[in-house]
Design a protein that fits this description.
By secondary structure, this protein is of the alpha/beta class. Helix content is 33%, strand content 17%. It has one domain: Rossmann fold, CATH 3.40.50.
């Protein structure tokens, strides 16, 4: 199968391209016009070709699609203000869908996110799964969650209109060599300090190589066509277990400043009350003081990957301990040897 992969040079995209090559697919990798493809370990692979394009531009987008059998859409904007994210995530997706229509391509795998779930409406310590409620009040959540929600709704409307084959992959927090210290365990307080919030909650995470393999399997797993599938690994660690794992490998770890989860909730609720009740909601609170965003990051829940195993015939290749070893190791995780992977005709 020949697959176009957007966001191919990003953190997850690099691993998805490698997984697609390992599975025997041909890849047309979409990278930004000014990206340096030589930094990508698989850039010389004979089954890779590049398409330099900014998805925020519509003109000429359909020209990079001929010969493609399916699209894996990873590209999204995580930085900047709401308008930057809207342009990169929503407008970029709208342009891609129109181009796919023009090129008569109707097979799409799109990465969504756990950020779409409405954590406040999921009872504590119960299982979050694909049937859990989605965000009810987007304005209480950050720009990333808002724009990803719009993106998914747009794709579902396009799916119904065009009768396209779409699989929605919703990963939990994706971690790996380039992204180990993340928002589910707190936040940075400068270069050498880390605010660690909570310790006992289970982390809905997936190691980037495990997640990438699931995304690629969605291309050909017919049972998954038209479905929404959560991706988390097996034997998920608690916040404390995860941090302890990081600290075992760090040579210069940040100084931990622990805060009890109940205390953090109280602080967030107070800040929200003062802002809404006394300041008319005019203050721009950091996410860590917004109750809905706090719940999305730290609420104690359980998670299931049952549907991913059933529909994708997928199981996480690497355990938590193996994932950390690979993340802190020096081995090449992305190069795919051409002779080991036979070319697959489109």
């Amino acid at each position: 199968m020949k697959v176009l992969i957007t966001g191919a040079s990003g953190f997850v995209g690099q691993y998805v391209v490698a997984a697609a090559l390992q599975a025997g697919h041909q890849v047309r990798a979409v990278i930004r016009p000014k990206s340096n493809e030589t930094r990508l370990p698989w850039h010389t692979h004979p089954n890779v070709e590049f398409a330099r394009f900014d998805l925020r531009q519509r003109r000429g987008l359909a020209d990079i699609l001929p010969g493609v059998d399916a699209v894996i859409h990873l590209a999204a904007t995580k930085g900047g203000d709401f308008y930057d994210r809207f342009a990169g995530t929503v407008i970029g997706t709208e342009n891609l869908l129109l181009a796919m229509e023009e090129a008569s391509i109707n097979h799409l795998v799109v990465t969504s996110t756990f950020s779409l779930y409405d954590y406040k409406r999921i009872p504590r310590r119960t299982v979050l799964d694909e049937d859990s409620p989605l965000i009810e009040d987007p304005l209480e959540r950050d720009a990333y969650a808002q724009t990803k929600l719009i993106q998914e709704e747009m794709i579902r409307e396009w799916q119904q209109k065009t009768d396209a084959t779409v699989t929605f992959i919703r990963p939990g927090m994706i971690y790996g060599r380039e992204a180990l210290w993340h928002a589910l365990i707190g936040g940075s307080l400068g270069e050498s300090r880390w605010l660690k919030i909570g310790s006992k909650s289970t982390l809905p995470m997936t190691y980037v190589e495990n997640c990438s393999e699931a995304i690629v399997k969605a291309l050909t797993a017919e049972k998954a066509f038209g479905k929404t599938i959560n991706i988390v690994d097996d034997n998920l660690p608690t916040q404390q277990t995860y941090v302890d794992g990081l600290l075992k490998h760090e040579t210069e770890p940040p100084k931990m400043i622990p805060v009890n989860w109940s205390l953090m909730q109280a602080i967030g609720n107070l800040a929200w009350f003062v802002n809404k009740g006394l300041l008319g909601g005019q203050a721009r609170l950091p996410g860590i003081l917004v109750p809905a965003q706090l719940q999305a990051r730290f609420r104690p829940l359980q998670y299931s990957n049952r549907l991913a195993k059933e529909l994708l015939d997928w199981s996480p290749r690497y355990s938590f301990e193996e994932a950390l070893r690979r993340s802190y190791g020096s081995e090449d995780l992305l190069t795919v040897e051409p002779e080991a992977v036979p070319a697959t005709s489109a």
